[in-house]
Structures
1.
Amino acid sequence: MSATIFSKIIAREIPADIVFEDEVCLAFRDIAPKAPVHVLLIPRQPLAKLGDASAGDQAMLGHLLVKAGEIARQQGCGDAFRVVINSGAGAGQEVFHLHLHILGGRDLGWPPG
Ligand code: AMP
């Protein structure tokens, strides 16, 4: 996988407003937030998109989902938040390093666009 802006954030080559990190993942505020809480959660291990995941990624993906809930609560979303993963350019993915959008802090309409 080629380097992306998110690998540069992991390597601390460019700044980010980091709200959580552990040995598996890193979470930072989206630079163009779509809600009062808009955090991106990424794995340190590079995977371009969810559609490329395989059985060997199960533990990492489960870890990300558990941490997404913890981060949403820590950011003040209570029990109402949304996790979005855009997989592929046709779904709106712009950065090809897997990331979970954690959105909250306002009413979230359904269906999304
Ligand atoms: P996606 O369209 O799902 O690939 O989402 C990419 C997200 O990354 C967008 O919401 C951007 O606003 C966000 N983004 C791009 N560059 C940065 C950056 N340097 N720091 C934080 N968020 C970023």
2.
Amino acid sequence: MSAGDPSRVGSYHIHTWGCQMNVHDSEKLAGVLEREGYVPATSEDDADVILLNTCSIREKASEKVFSELGRLRRLKRTNSNMLLGVCGCVAQQEGENIYKRAPYVDLVIGPRAIDSIGPALASIRDGGRGALRVTDTEYRSDSIRFPFDEIRRIGESRAKAFVTIIEGCNHRCTYCIVPTTRGREVYRPMADVLQEVRVLARKSVVEIEFLGQTVNAYRDSEGNTLAELLTATAAIDGIRRIRFTTSHPAQMTERLMDAMAAAQPTVCAYLHLPVQSGSSRVLRAMRRGYDRETYLAKIEALRSRIPGMLFGTDIIVGFPGETEDDFLQTITLLDEVQFDTVYSFAYSPRPGTRALELDDDLPPAGKHERLQRLQEHQKGIQAARMATWLGRSVEVLVEGRSKRNEERWTGRTVESRVVNFVGDSAPGRLEWVEITETTPFSLAGRVRASDLDRRRLAPI
Ligand code: SAH
Ligand code: SF4
Ligand code: F3S
């Protein structure tokens, strides 16, 4: 801890796993810590507080936390001041067990208790290490507020912000741990959300991404749904792009589709709509609440309203009882829909879920073999689809320097295509980029020559 600045109580470092909700929770944790006087650590080695914001969606993600803790235990031996905290979904799921498996952990905080991080750290420091351990396993689901959206940190681009509108999930998909870790749905009043968006817009944020595990289940006590929220947000001065994730196919209503179409091009022409399987039999066993035909009809209904709209999805292969024929139905669904982004996973059994009771005769190696086949197949589809962007000019919201190549900028198009490019630019700009190269996963190019000429005459 540095003695220079009396208001500085220490430095922090946060590791984040999991979904965008977790990424945003880390922004909120950072916001709370900074309000308490903490500053970001220059490196993990000299941080006073290290937080692991964890994910338990699959077994691997969950186990990674314990291997990370083992590594940090060694670091703690060399930095005796350091406090180690576990936050997020593993914290919620494992609770006190974390202290049993890793007694050197100082703090365990579930996702809905992140507001207690500041006082918890202060009291541990005052009373000696381990004096207070916070595990919030109780959900105050009817009364939860979302005060921390206001003290978030905005990412590097400063032009894009996440806004939580709904927490938790009321579905009961038979493979999924999220309802256990995040609790039942709670909704934020639309007036609060809009107030926050206005504040962000005044801070030059141009892209808003609404978040929720089932974001399109949003409804507030006044009867507003995501449809009304999109319409009202699109009318706010300065907001150029609106995204929302993750949507549940069963809750993609006609009314919501109409609102999306009416708010073009501000509502981005890309939707992440997890299908999980192309087999209606498997979808029923998963309790997804729709079948293959209904899913395909929703995609069609959106494409007919918003021409050029792109789609992404999540797939689970090797769900208990999935036959080769079921799997092949997922492959034909990929062919039919022509997704532009697919996140695919081998089924992973999770504690307390209904799928554990189903017979599962496909060993892990068989699941991974299907996963590989699916990924290879989708790679071919994406390569062909991405190649159609070659030679086009696209508008990119610049997020920052590319992590792989510091000489390039990186950002996204309205259709959520990642674009890496060269040329004079800066984070937060909306830039026109000519596409000169494509891969199955991203586009590459350069700032449009006419824009560069214009800038040389009138530098901005
Ligand atoms: N709320 C979102 C999904 C959130 S979890 C929805 O309903 O679509 C993100 C993804 O992880 C899921 O879409 C699913 O594809 C995957 N997933 C969830 N549980 C899993 C499990 N037990 N094994 C493998 N993948 C899983
Ligand atoms: Fe999990 Fe299903 Fe809820 Fe998504 S909708 S978070 S997959 S239970
Ligand atoms: Fe993981 Fe929790 Fe998100 S389990 S996917 S971090 S809601």
